[in-house]
Amino acid sequence: MLSILVLFVVCISEINCISQDLTDYFPRCSIDDSNLNNCLLNAFNTVRPYVKKGVEEIGILPFEPLVLPTFNLSQENLAANYTFTAWNFTIRGLDNYSVKEINYNPETLIFSTKMEFDALPLYSKYEISGRVLHIPLEGKGFVSATLLGPIYATIRIEGDLVEVDGVKYYNTTTIKVTESIKDLEVTAEGLFEGDKELGRVTNHLLNLFSVEIMQAITPALEQLAEERFMRFMKSFTGSVPYYKIFPKLNN
Length: 251
Ligand SMILES: *[C@@H]1O[C@H](CO)[C@@H](O)[C@H](O)[C@H]1NC(C)=O
Ligand SMILES: *[C@@H]1O[C@H](CO)[C@@H](O)[C@H](O)[C@H]1NC(C)=O
Ligand SMILES: *[C@@H]1O[C@H](CO)[C@@H](O)[C@H](O)[C@H]1NC(C)=O
Ligand SMILES: *[C@@H]1O[C@H](CO)[C@@H](O)[C@H](O)[C@H]1NC(C)=O
Ligand SMILES: *[C@@H]1O[C@H](CO)[C@@H](O)[C@H](O)[C@H]1NC(C)=O
Prior knowledge:
Layout: H1 2-12, H2 36-46, H3 48-53, E1 66-76, E2 80-91, E3 98-105, E4 110-117, E5 120-132, E6 135-148, E7 151-164, E8 167-180, E9 183-191, H4 196-208, H5 210-239, H6 242-245
Helix pairs in contact: 1-5
The structure holds 2-acetamido-2-deoxy-beta-D-glucopyranose (NAG) (5 copies).
GO cellular component, one term: extracellular space
Signal peptide: 1-17
InterPro entries: Haemolymph_juvenile_hormone-bd, To_sf
């Protein structure tokens, strides 16, 4: 699971996922370890400086900052009804995580973790059409924002073991991400074809109702994270055998 974190970084950065073994200075946790969860907790925290800077010899790029070339976000409900596209979405501070809880149960094959982050500044080229709360949003340009900390995220992964050519792999079936982000500060340029007054009023409203806006868009952000994680898990656990991720003690 340590390697999951490491490889997550590779894959979320949209680099081709790799399946090499990890270098020696990465701690490993044995499936038979009676303190498996402690081992994982230490491992996640130990590996932070490496993943932050990247580990060139095994092809891991730095994830500070993290850049997503493009993605779409859309919602259609009472609170929010919009389509949003981002290009070169850049977010900073993800390396500054602290693992609060971690739990892997080899019997149920369920993994869960709770992480804390500080404020996360981000910026992106964007296009938006629709509304959030009752604030109409039309525009295209550049947006910068800061998700205010402390931010908490929990990730829960469920799966089963499958056997391919006599080798066991973990097959992820469900991923649930829960994010707790209380507030944000945002500045969007290019709203309403650059109309200064509409742009000013809209930015004012976005910051005035930022807590409610954060609440309204959190489900979309959680879904985005779930899709990214699932893509990564399929690629990672589909190519690295289960007992390479969690070595047996006498092996
Ligand atoms: C986002 O949506 C646009 C138009 O709806 C589409 O052309 C584009 O392929 C989508 N991009 C992604 C990454 O899904
Ligand atoms: C969302 O916006 C579209 C386009 O303006 C509209 O047709 C639809 O009824 C809206 N849905 C909700 C739930 O407000
Ligand atoms: C995204 O960034 C890359 C590299 O800096 C650049 O070549 C590309 O044009 C950018 N894309 C957009 C849509 O701005
Ligand atoms: C990382 O966390 C430390 C301590 O919590 C904080 O002082 C620092 O500003 C944070 N850095 C970033 C980039 O968020
Ligand atoms: C993994 O599980 C999904 C269902 O959740 C299933 O469709 C798929 O075939 C499984 N993959 C393998 C390799 O068995």
